[in-house]
């Protein structure tokens, strides 16, 4: 692997921190395990899309871990979401279409887009194969998300998992709409150290390379891992192989910081401090 020495903001982790090993990777979902995973990486922060993050570890933003407001059912609490976003407790809205059997354009979600427009925060969609037998894939088809992007041009939308395996559709939506971005977490779940380099290249590196080439810019692609569903270091390795080195700073850090209203403020004892932009 080429020397990897850039800041990393992981735009997709899970923070239940229940101490259980992940079904796919075997990685323990605990705060101690997470800290071990990021050791040796120029980590600046991460975004959790856990609907029920751990409440036993205090304010995780002190560790650079931020959260989004997750919508996983039709009876979501609009007031609670609004308050958490307005206060800065949450940085984005994540809507699990596919798991919820409604298209993103459904009337039930319109208040959330108006809220995102007012507060200037991004909206994230699960996109592509939900990987759950009770989900309905058609609602997570990346093409179906184009309609919302057109109707709300002042809201930034993130297609989580980059539409996997419909990368071409996701890239077409992102290329067409200036307000759509692709996040590349969990393109393979598991511990990549037990997979062949050829498989990781075929399913991670090559799709990323194709999307970047199609988009014609490194500004539309965001790194996310899906930890603990993947082994972090090996996932970064496969991810970076799909990108030219000149794209690394954008994809692994800068694009996410801009989208989620964060910036690197200063170094303190060798650690990077992040603050929410006003």
Account of the protein in words:
There is one protein chain. The chain has helices spanning 31-38, 78-86, 110-119, 146-151, 167-176, 197-215, 232-241, 248-259; strands spanning 8-13, 43-48, 65-67, 69-71, 93-95, 123-126, 157-160, 180-183, 221-222, 262-268, 271-276. The longest helix is centred in the C-terminal third of the chain and has 19 residues, at 197-215. Helix content is 30%, strand content 17%. The chain is α/β, with parallel strands linked by helices and 278 residues long. Residues 268-274 have low confidence and may be disordered. Helix 2 (78-86) packs parallel to helix 3 (110-119) and helix 5 packs parallel to helix 6. The chain has eight helices and eleven strands. Helix 6 (197-215) links the parallel strand 8 (180-183) and strand 9. The strands form three sheets. Strands 4-5-6-7-8-9 form a six-stranded parallel sheet. A three-stranded parallel sheet has the order 1-2-3. A two-stranded antiparallel sheet has the order 10-11.
Characteristics:
278 residues, alpha/beta, 6-stranded parallel β-sheet, 3-stranded parallel β-sheet, 8 helices, 11 strands, globular
Summarize the structure.
This protein has 278 residues and is of the alpha/beta class. The protein has 8 helices and 11 strands.
